[in-house]
Amino acid sequence: MEVALGILLLYGLSDLLFRFLGLGAYAHGKRREAKVALTFDDGPSERTEALLALLRRHGVKATFFLTGEKAKGRPDLVEALRREGHQVEDHGAYHQALWLFLPWVEWRHMRETPSRYYRPPHGLHTPFTRLFARLLGKRIALWDVEGKDWLDLPPEALAERLLFYLKPGSIVLLHDGPERTLRLLEILLPKILALGYEPVTLDDLKPIPLTFRLALLRGLQGLEERYNQRHRVRRAGLGPFDLFRIEKKPFPGPALPGLPPGVPALELHLESARMMDLSTFEVARYLRKSLHRVAETVAQDPEVRLVYGYSYLAQGGRYLGFSTQPLPFWPRLVGSLASAWFLWLYRGEFPKRAHFWAGMAYLTREELLRRYPPSTPASPPQAPGEPGTPPP
Predict the structure, then answer these.
(1) Which of 28, 41, 176, 292 is catalytic?
(2) Choice among 91, 175, 269, 292 that is catalytic
C-alpha cells in the first residue's frame, strides 16, 4: 500500500510541477517584442489544407505538433507544411494519454519521431517525461495561452478571449482538426495583425525555459482569469503594450476633495506580464499611451468620476499627472505586501526600502481627459465575449 501511494504521489507531483506549472518547459518567449507563436496540435487532419490556405492568405507562419500515426497516413500534408515554411514538431506517436503512464510505452511514444520540440498529449507529464526528453535531445514545448477550441463555444467568443489574453511572446495552443478553429482564426488573424502582433514559428519566437518564478506565474494565470470573470474586468485597449485593465466599481476611499467614497470610478490594474521585460523608459512611454486608452473608456461612460490604483508606484504616478493620497495603516500594509509580491513575481526584484510603502494614485475625470485626450472618438469599451460580459 505504501509503495502504491508513493508512486501515485510521485506521478501527481510530476504533473503539478511539469504540466500545471510547466517548470523547465518552453511556454513563452520574451515579452519585449510583439511576436507570438500559433501552435496546432493533433494533425495532420482533413482540415489541414484549409488551415494552410487560411494561414497563407494572411502571410502567417505557425508550428504544427503532429501525431506520428496521422503523419504516416498523410505524408503529403507533412511535406506541404514544410514546403510552406511552417515548423513541424512532435506530438508523440499517438494521442492515447492513458497508456503513457507506463514508462516503456512512453519511451516508444517519444522516440518514434525525431524533433527538436516535443509536446506531450494534453501536456501530460509522468516522472519519466523530462528524463526521456533529455535522453532524446528534445525540448518540452507547452503554452501560455489556450485557444480552448475543443470547447463547444462560439468561435467569436473564443477569438475575443484570445485577444484579451494574448501577450508579446505568447505561445498559443490550438488544434488542427476542429472546424471551429478555422472560424476562430478567420476572426482572430486580421485583428491581431491590425493590433501589431507578428505570428512566427516557435524557432523565430525563441522561447525560454520557465524558471521557478516564471512557472509560478504560469500556474497563477487561472486565478487572474477567474478574477476577471467575476469582477467584469476589461482591458483598456487590446494592443500588445496596452498596460491597463479596468474595473468599474464604487470608489472605496479614502475621501478626496469633492469625491466622497461611493462615487463611480475605475480601478486600474497594471498588466504586469506585459511590462516584465521592458526597461523603465519603455514602461513610462507605454503607460502614457495606455492612459489615452483609459481616457477613451472614461469619455464613453459619463458616470465615472475618477480613476485610481493602489501601489508602491503611487509616488511615481506623479510624473504621469496623478495625485497621491496616503492610506490608513492596514490597507497600506496589505497594499505594500501585495506590491512587493507582484514586483518579485513579474520582475524578480524587491522594492527599495525607501519606496516600500504603497499609496493611492488617482486622476479625476476632468484631469484625465485634459492630460490624455482620447486619440479617437469615444467608442464602446472592447470587452471579450458578449457585450458587458467577462471572457468565457
Answers:
(1) 41
(2) 175
